[in-house]
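Course assignment 3, question 2. Fill in each field.
Student: A.L.
Task: Predict the tertiary structure for the chain below.
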Amino acid sequence: MFSRPNLYGNLTKICGNMRTTALVNPSSVTAAAASSPTPYSNANVRQYHEVVGDIVCPSQVRGIDHIRDPRLNKGLAFTLEERQILGIHGLQPARFKTMEEQLELCKIAVNRYMEPLNKYLYLADLADRNEHLYFRFLYDNIEDLMPIVYTPTVGLACQRFGLIYRRPRGLFITVNDRGHVFDILRNWPEPDVRAICVTDGERILGLGDLGANGMGIPVGKLALYTALAGIKPHQCLPVLIDVGTNSYDLLEDPLYVGLRQKRVVGKEYDDFIDEFMEAVVKRYGQNTLIQFEDFGNQNAFRFLDKFRNTYCTFNDDIQGTAAVAVAGLYASKRITNRNFADSTFVFAGAGEAAIGIASLCVKAMVDEGVDEKTALSKIWMVDIDGLLTTTRKKGTISTHQTKFAKDVEPLDKLEDIVTKYKPNVLIGASAAAGIFTPKILQTMAANNERPIVFALSNPTSKAECTAEQAYQNTDGRVVFSSGSPFPPVTINNKTFTPGQGNNAYIFPGVALGVIATGTHHIPEDMFLISAKELANFVEQSDLDRGSLYPPLKSIHEVSMRIACAITSYAYKEGIYINYLTPTLIIALNICSQKSHIRFEL
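Answer field:
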């Protein structure tokens, strides 16, 4: 059975004590059967689709249905006695296998596949038939499997979603369901949902408008909620808002599974999103966490501004990306000995990720004691039409970009901007592959002893430069990070293993802290706190190998540290709903220093 995390059970108990009922461990089946004269009368037996979440009682689901339910299935780990009592004797081979033996088989099986997409499909199948084994396998091999269940492979899975779709793993709510969104939510069998990840598929990673094919993103995100933060799988709900797609290729693709129409926009679209938000609160409660993911730039900012003070919501593309990038910048201070306020930043890209990072950088500078006007003057932003200025004649500037526009002469080329303004930090969030040319990287190296270059665009094919290009063109002096993983690079007889600025370092811990405290709204301070916690977890050995982030194998502990920090902040600021005593806060911080999630049969 998937047990609660051993060392930080307090947090998960808080997550589960508001609306849960008793959870019966599968190992208790034998004892229950022995103590009851008629443990399996017809009144007690239910079909597997009739039981949900924490009220799944193994004694109520018998026979083939017990094996077909991924929440109850243990593969070949059922003992002979369990097989006889549950009515599954003879439905499986005679061999008994422990979880460890099954995990070894999973490793052999996944390693036989050479293509990442085939590995992704194997893991999806595993999740559909044995939930406990899937999350344990993911937990134990997070370094190897993170690129499969998340970026970059999830991008390929979205592109081919119509071909690989097998069974429902979330809700598809179309614009044709207007007026009935609440009824659609009621069709989801789990009544105790605490976290929702929702996308409309308009801007999937750096791949553009994928419409309904974007469902792979919320599915992958919420899998990491469980694997990295221990949030119960049945409390997570992936949602795809299908309002059409503007991709001509998808509209003509016979394998496309979404609505075959142009995107609905304007008031009709906004009213539909409003209905969805209201339906979520009506169905699951005011403190249900709603994570917005991969919406178009304008909609992402609009919805964040509109909903952040009325719902429990955040946008991972804006705030999660910002937190992980700023964490890397905090860690880089130990290399450059330079504060935020002492640096000049140039951003290639002025979309939601870039604006989010820049805004959190401003907040970090203010935290260092600099006034906001001075902090804004340190940041230069470039979009497809060139430098954001108040005087440029082509291109438009959105409301969120306005504060970063400078009253200077327009410049169109990134190379000229880097040469003129001599940034210490160059951050790419443009989805423009190769935009960090050798000349730009060499200029950064000429102007800085340790230039900082972040190529954050996903997937790998959209990165502004590769790790090898960054190190080669700076004589190995660059402080580098990327949004997708790159292999180690050897320069001047030294091998660098660059770290990936992965949002997965941030959003699971934030989600756990928010759910644990029952916080109704998520202040921006929580993301600065998360960035600091992540940076504090980076050790000198990580910096020496060329990484600004801790190894992925420690990401579970990072998530717990962040959750504890969020919990403490919510308690101190009085924005919690679930009561937390100071003693419990101290206990949580102690737990965070030695926490490990356990997945057991």
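Instructor remarks: The CA atoms of residues 426 and 453 lie 5 Å apart. Confidence is low (pLDDT under 50) at residues 1-44, 592-601.
Grade: pending
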